[in-house]
Amino acid sequence: QVPLVESGGGSVQAGGSLRLSCVGFGDSDSVNCVAWFRQPPGKEREGVAVIYTGGGATYYSESVKGRFTISEDTAKNTVYLQMTSLKSEDTAMYYCAAGLYASHMPRADAMDYWGKGTLVAISS
Fold first, then answer.
1. Cβ distance 85 to 41 under 8 Å?
2. How many angstroms separate the Cα of 90 from the Cα of each of 24, 59, 75, 104?
3. What is the rounded distance in angstroms from the CA atom of residue 124 to the CA atom of residue 115?
4. Which phi and psi (to 5°) does residue 80 adopt?
5. How far apart are CA 121 and CA 70, in angstroms?
6. Residues 12-61: pLDDT tens digits?
7. Measuring CA to CA, how many Å separate 62 from each of 29, 47, 55, 68?
8. Contact 122, 12 (CB under 8 A)
9. Which residues pair with 99 in a beta bridge?
10. Which of 23, 14, 22 is nearest to 48 (CA)?
């Protein structure tokens, strides 16, 4: 089991920044990547960023590329999502997920471990 806990969500104005944290991916043989997904109200869940642990390869969705940065601190078992230049369309519940995947952005159904989410609300 890989318990994941997200934090850092909140309400900010458009153009602002937030940093999300995901604690708990640990050193598990069943995890080679940690991803952030988001689910806007009334829409499907989408992957926004992923980091492959150890090697550090990162991938982003086109909608956040250049604005969001994913990073890891293995000593703290924490993955961060730094979000800048936030837009109203970034409003969503953000989830941290971990699992095994080959490369690039994983599908949500490929992730074995999920946090409960943290809410990000951007006002224009």
1. no
2. 25, 17, 29, 21
3. 28
4. -110, 150
5. 19
6. 999 999 999 999 877 678 899 999 999 999 999 999 999 998 777 999 99
7. 30, 10, 22, 10
8. yes
9. 33, 111
10. 22
